[in-house]
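[job 4471] stage=fold_predict status=RUNNING
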Amino acid sequence: MTQSLPQLSSRAQSLGTENAFVVLAEVTELARQGKDIISFCIGQPDFPAPAHVQEAGIRAIREGKHGYTPSAGIDPLREAAAKYMSGMRGGLPIRAEDVVVGAGAKPFIAYAILSTTDFGAGDEVIYPNPGFPIYESQIIANGARPVPIHLREARDFAFDPAELEKLITPKTRLLILNYPHNPTGGLLGRQDLEAIAAVMRRHPQVWIYADEIYSRLAYTGEFFSIAQLPDMYQRTIISDGASKTWAMTGWRIGFASNPVLAPVFTRWVTNTDSCASQISQWAAVEAINGPQDAAEMMKASFKARRDLIVGLLNKVPGVSCKVPGGAFYAWPNVTEACRMVGAKDSEEFRKRLLHEAGVAVLADIHFGSRVPGEGQHVRFSYAASNEAIEKGVARMAEFIRKNSR
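[job 4471] inference complete, writing structure tokens
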């Protein structure tokens, strides 16, 4: 007789995921079967980390820098990150002791929720929808209540500050902002942020988590952070990292800054990862302090690809696409294309596009519940070659023409 296993917690059973990785597994399996797939699924630069950064990692290994570091990170990286984050944000008074290094920027989402809400107390976290799926997943897993704020296509995928005012209650503890934004590529400009800050000043009990991982990939004017506005610095957790700017996704280095919460985040790191990889930390020091030509080249390349993919998508029957202000994502509206091919929604459209045309994208429902009245969308990551972009969009256009009712 086989003995039944002990039960999983309801928390583990309800834990969300990042669907980009789920679809990637599906794409990998189809490719393994010999299918020709052009993938626009994963949001990571398709460039290697800069050569001088790679060399710094090798040097760290050869010099025996293999051990634990302080949980908050090595001093040279905290100093470099403080200077870098300050310089990118109009000279904010960020000190090395305000910065904590993590194994990527992603853990700070959880640390921020854990540090500002109490489990099961009914504390609320407002987060963008559509949005990075880990926001909602971590809010629920950590026993807080998720409150989505809808992004609108008519506002270039910003939200209405009046809607934010309506959503804040005495139970609201944290507001998550992400700009440039995943999945829409939307950018909150200074005017948007000033309107949000005006609302936040009326609700001093709410912390702000500014997910600024794409800060170096803003294409319209200079990047601007909500932390630069009056009364916002002390209450804003600034999150950034090496992954997108220097193509270091797998090196797992992120950094967050807040003068009050830095010691708390350090304790969370001690409780979870102990510290980020020492080898990666030395490579990140070189990424920040060394030559920036590779980072600038990647940004220019992404901007050119953005212009290419948006131009091509807007010529596809039944598709319209706004010009994203940053990151490397396009978020075309495919409502009419779904109708033309008889797909009930974007997810059915995505599946058919994958299996019938060999083009892999993500659907809007992979980034939260569909926003009422906003139609159907899919996400393209244009961290792909020009050739892949041209071929992929051509296949999509052909798929729609061939299947139009």
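[job 4471] summary: The chain has two domains: 10-48+294-403, 65-289.
[job 4471] exit 0
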